[in-house]
Amino acid sequence: MSEVAKTKEPKEPLFSKKNKQLVTDPLTDNNPITIQVLGICSALAITVQVKQAVVMSISVMFVLILGNMIISMLRNLIPSRIRIIVQLVVVASLVIIVDQLLAAFMPDVSEQLSVFVGLIITNCIIMGRFEAFAMANKPWPSIMDGFGNALGYAWILVLVAVVRELLGSGSLYGYKIFGSAIPGEEWGLYTMGYANNNMMILPPMALIVVGIIIWVQRSRNKALIEEH
Amino acid sequence: MKKFLEKIVHKQEPKFAKGGKLEKWNPVFESFMTLAFTPNITTKKGSHIRDAADLKRTMMTVIIALIPCLLFGIYNSGHWQMVAETGNRDLVFWADQGTKIVNGLWIVLPLIVVSYGVGLTIEFIFGILKGHSLHEGFLVSGMLIPLIMPADVPLWMVGVATAFAVIIGKEIFGGTGMNIVNVALTARAFLFFAYPTSMSGDKVWMNGLSDRLAGGADNLDGFSGATALGDAASFMSYKPVFDSAEALINNYSMSDSFFGMIPGSVGETSVIACLIGAAILLITGIGSLRIMASFALGGLATGFLLNAVGGNDYFDLPAYYHLLIGGFAFGAVFMATDPVTAAQTSAGKLYYGFFGGMIAILIRVLNPAYPEGVMLAILFMNVMAPIIDHYVVQANIKRRLKRLKTA
């Protein structure tokens, strides 16, 4: 993933090495889900199907980039004692825009995601980035940081959703990969006795899949392993 | 003969030693060698507990204790396969022994081969990757897994569940001795939630029954492949199979349930085989009497409590009958006593067993979605065991501090 992000960016001072790192770091060694373990609730709730995960990722990306930008622009005006409220107002407004857009243009997905779009407000990644980055940095780096973190969140989410939908429902993005299990008109793998793994649809399996990703990541990069 | 074999094997040793050609395979070599022969390495310094029984011998003892259950399970699954073929549930149990044994072997042996094959392969891979010698823990888990499977379960599911249990249930915690929950039960729980139609219901307990039903076999009209537990759970639904608790006991008689001549998971049905296993475990000092006894006691007490509450056929089922059906005896003897996942303190073992038995019966009776509560109860108590131990130790410290102050 990190290579893809790098090649997309043209060589401009705007994309200095430092700015680039703002995007690439959250993808791997500072990933919001697998390293900071933030935003886990949504990773559990909406990774049953890839489509939901993709829509969720895009929504979070929209909120996080714009929110980071707005907070960063306002950062010198926000009194620090009420900064959480201001941040909440910003993120809530953005989430309502996303919610309305989804309801208007993708009613079916909006229905499936139900409260989880509204719950983006409580996504720890967003408030975390506002607090940790946007409050102390200029708008452009904040946008890059928002983009990077949202992308780091997105690829884990989509990866978990791919595993869960493929093994749990035998499809990807709604397309039946392993065939159909409808009794009487089975085809594909199901005629050979294959069965969908119902546990993949249950929330605990999302935790286990995320855990396996964390395991792989830490065994590849020993520096990430904490001292006990 | 033994000397001769040993000589050949020891000759190979330098190849696997550090710097040797096959250094990477040392864990594999060492595991097989110590399994076959007495290890030639002994503890050289420090004060260790010296005992003739190392971990491998302990594991082998448990496997020996499992043999009665295994043998009976083979015959029993053969019997119920024949029942499913003839569609006659009242088939004489001790007739056609030859066919039943052969059929039973065809059911159980593949389960054992798959369970050991998958489990040991994964253990070897982890052993080689991490450079430690093979952990012996899977010897028992690999035998337990086939014994707690329904006879009709597809083999690939057993393989997937074993892989899941060994990797997620054990290896990521650090291997044998570090796991939090019982490995064999993890495999069963995984299957139970992942493939419920192949693990529960009334079609999976007799080999070939689901296929024959799907194929529309004509001698199976009105035939039920349900277990005693399945029928008992139907008391909680709108359409119970039996009118009263007595009718259920008349159908699955007390002695049938005790000897195990009822359908169920491969090795769990026979209480008497479990008791023989328990005796072996207790005489050799490997199993904990505290856990077994308190587990049974917890189940009995809960059964009596439900009897006293009454008001429903399942509540009225005699308390001791609960101990005879399903996997209660098997769970109490072989699962709850797993030394790694059970409570370690003496008092803790009593609490652990008692609550385990209690929760098992409560899940059985109060939640008809899970006809068998023993698996879930033991897994739950596995998770709780460290907390129990913690409070037992704390209470002990407190008591002794008080004594110190008064003196």
Can you tell me about this structure?
The complex is a heterodimer of chains A (228) and B (407). Chain A has a two-stranded antiparallel sheet. In chain A, strands 3-4 form a two-stranded antiparallel sheet. The radius of gyration of chain A is 19 Å and the shape is globular. Chain A has one domain (47-218). Chain A has 228 residues and is mainly alpha-helical. In chain A, helix 4 packs antiparallel against helix 5 (83-105). Chain A has helices at residues 2-8, 17-24, 40-45, 50-74, 83-105, 107-113, 115-118, 124-132, 139-169, 203-220; strands at 171-172, 175-176, 179-180, 187-188. The longest helix of chain A is centred in the C-terminal third of the chain and has 31 residues, at 139-169. Chain B has two domains: 12-38 and 56-215, no CATH class; 226-407, no CATH class. Chain B has helices at residues 2-16, 26-36, 55-86, 97-130, 138-147, 155-170, 183-194, 196-199, 209-214, 228-233, 245-251, 254-259, 271-283, 289-309, 313-316, 319-324, 328-335, 346-366, 374-406. Chain B is mainly α. Chain A binds chain B through residues 193, 195, 197-200, 202, 208, 211, 215, and chain B through 154, 156-157, 160, 168, 172, 190, 193-198.
Give short descriptive properties of this protein.
heterodimer; A: 228 residues; mainly alpha; two-stranded antiparallel ribbon; 10 helices; 4 strands; globular; disordered N terminus; B: 407 residues; 2 domains
Number of domains of chain A: 1
Helix-strand pattern of chain B: HHHHHHHHHHHHHHHHHHH
Structural category of chain B: mainly alpha
Q: Mean pLDDT of chain B, nearest integer? A: 86
Number of domains of chain B: 2
Largest interface, with counts of residues having CB < 8 Å to the other chain, equals: A-B, 10 and 13 residues
What percent of the residues of chain A sit in helical stretches (DSSP H or I)? 55-70%
Tell me, briefly, the overall form of chain A. Answer: globular
The count of DSSP E runs of length 2 or more, i.e. the number of strands of chain B, is 0
- Rg from Cα of chain B: 23 Å
Structural class of chain A: mainly alpha
**Oligomeric state as shown:** heterodimer
Output the helix-strand order of chain A.
Answer: HHHHHHHHHEEEEH
Q: Poorly predicted ranges of chain B (pLDDT <50, ≥5 residues)?
A: none
Rg of chain A, Cα atoms, Å: 19 Å
| Helical residues, percent of chain B | 55-70%
- Give the beta-strand count of chain A: 4
Indicate the proportion of strand residues of chain B: under 5%
